[in-house]
Amino acid sequence: MSDEDKTLWGIHAGRLGEADSLFLKKNVIAIGWHEMGDITSIGGDRDALKARIAETYPKAKPGAIPGTAGQLFRFINEMKSGDLVIYPSKIDRRIHVGEITGEYRFDPSLGDDSPNLRPVAWRGEYPRTRFSQGALYEIGSALPLFQVKNYADEFLAALAGETPSSADGDEETAAIVAEEIEATTRDYVLKRLAREAKGYPLEHFIAHLLEAMGYKTRVTPVGTDAGIDIIAHRDDLGFEPPIIKVQVKSSEGSVGDPIVSALYGKVDDGEFGLLVTLGTFTNQAKSFARNKSNLRLIDGDELVDLIFEYYEFFDSKYKGLLPLKQVYVPEPIASSEGDS
Predict the structure, then answer these.
(1) Are residues 239 and 316 in the same domain?
(2) How far from chain centre, in Å, is Cα 245?
């Protein structure tokens, strides 16, 4: 059978590449879940496999069990001798391509954490720069085990000694990847705040954000705020204008005109009103605020923008709530005017 007719798999070796030496020095690929023990007897019984996972990991979320079962099932039953496998090493930063040469076996003697094994003959290793950004993105899957389909031809070309046309579409693909990374991060921030800082803790978080922006803040006690959660001001005593009355909504839904109007009714002359939500505002609410020079609405999307802008000024408590790391991603290069 030619390489073009073979199934192409991708596999990772732990978050930090812990199994790198096992893969490359012992000529195997492996996956974990070592607490399961030898599952050879389960064979192709998916239900029995799920039951074994639930028994072994009683704290596992029910929704996670099918995914774990799917990974193990593919490794044991769907992979076969002759299939090709791609291993992107995090240690040497090279792409290793091999051929599976035997059946599944359980062997904890080679690696206690990854005892589910298949033998592999490594056929080639290549620098990451040889492949397109799209191909690298595909083998960067978050799953430990996955099929490579969209860019399989590039890896097959490398095995055949051909040079893939890796530059084609790289800038466009890189820009798409960058957009996806940003969108995923924005979703993560809002979901994290909704889960970990719902209600009163979110008021303290918004107060801390305002402090990072240069304001002094006072969070009103629970039950006595009368619709005002935070008072923000520039001076230490809170006497000098502008005085900002802030209401915080941890709901992920839409905030309507009645809530916005109620806040504005508590704003006196010379004061400002600020309503912050993890969700959105209805068109009526935005229309009401549009003509009020001393009323400001911040929805979840704009809140994330402010968090990104002032994150470096957060203290360790709130950086722990939102653990983020600055990364550089490709930016599309605008073509010069007149380019064909």
Answers:
(1) yes
(2) 34
Q: Are residues 149 and 196 in the same domain?
A: no
Same-domain pairing of 195 and 256: yes
Residue 335 within a domain: no
Residue with the two structure tokens 């007719």: 5
Distances (CA, A) of 163 to 126, 131, 156, 158, 320: 11, 9, 10, 6, 45
Q: Does residue 116 sit in the same domain as residue 263?
A: no
Tell me, yes or no, if the pTM score tops 0.85.
no
For residue 71, which of 106, 35, 101, 46 has the smallest C-alpha distance? 46
SS3 content of the chain, % helix, strand, coil (to 5): 40, 20, 40
Local structure of 106: helix, strand or coil = strand
Closest to 232 in 3D by CA, of 242, 309, 304? 242
Residue 183 lies in a domain: no
Query: How buried is 148 (Cβ within 10 angstroms: 0-12 exposed, 13-18 middle, 19+ buried)?
Result: buried
DSSP assignment letter at 163: -
Q: Distance between CA atoms of 208 and 3, rounded to whole angstroms?
A: 58
**DSSP code, position 231:** E
Tally of structural domains, the chain: 2
In a domain, 110, yes or no: yes
Residue 173 lies in a domain: no
Residue-range definition of the domain harbouring residue 129: 3-166
Q: pLDDT tens digits for the chain (340 residues)?
A: 777 888 999 998 765 566 778 888 889 998 878 788 787 778 778 888 898 889 888 888 888 888 888 888 898 889 999 999 999 988 888 899 999 999 988 888 876 677 888 999 999 999 888 888 788 888 888 788 999 999 999 999 999 888 765 545 556 666 666 777 788 889 999 999 999 998 899 999 999 999 999 999 999 987 665 789 999 998 888 778 789 999 999 888 899 999 999 999 999 888 999 999 999 999 999 999 998 999 999 999 999 999 999 999 999 999 999 999 887 777 665 554 445 4
User: CA-CA distance, 230 to 203, in Å (whole number)?
Assistant: 7
